[in-house]
Amino acid sequence: MMSQGGVFVLQFSGAILLARSLTPYDMGGYTAGAAAICILGIPQALGLMPFIIREPDLGCHILASAFIVNAILAAALSLAIVGPERPRRPVPA
To answer: Which residues contact 43 (CB under 8 A, 6 or more apart)?
Structure first.
């Protein structure tokens, strides 16, 4: 597993590569998408895994409900990543 420092270095270098390769117009779209992904990822990161670990009586109904909620959150996150794709405007010559 990577340490937190390694993850930070990878994220930082990825941000530098994005900043160098995107135009200001594209950077605005990327920023809006990244903000939506972060907001939608909060319930997924905070809720289900600790609940499943701490629950003393895990029945089939609880596991099925947790799976469905996790699937809905993952689908919403996927739509937030792929959904707002807009056509690129032509670059003036």
So the answer is: 73
pTM of the predicted structure, to 2 decimals: 0.52
Written as one string, the DSSP assignment of 5-18 is HHHHHHHHHHHHHH
Say if CB 18 and CB 34 are below 8 A apart: no
Q: What is the Cα–Cα distance from 64 to 68, expressed in whole angstroms?
A: 6
| pLDDT tens track for 49-82 | 777 778 888 888 888 888 888 888 888 778 777 7
**C-alpha dist (Å) from residue 37 to 4, 10, 44:** 21, 18, 11
